[in-house]
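Journal club side-thread
Mid-discussion, someone asked how the predicted structure for our own chain would compare to the paper's figures. Pasting it here so we can look after the session.
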Amino acid sequence: MSRVILFVVVIVAVVIGGALALSARSGEKPLTHVEKAISLGDLKK
């Protein structure tokens, strides 16, 4: 019985640790404005 409890505690600790590690990552990147020159021929289509 104690092995089952130890196994569950280890699994829960790994899941919580993984969630904290993923939340600590900076997933959001700042937006960058990109201007691209287009020819007048492309506008007429």
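Post-session note: The CA atoms of residues 39 and 45 lie 11 Å apart.
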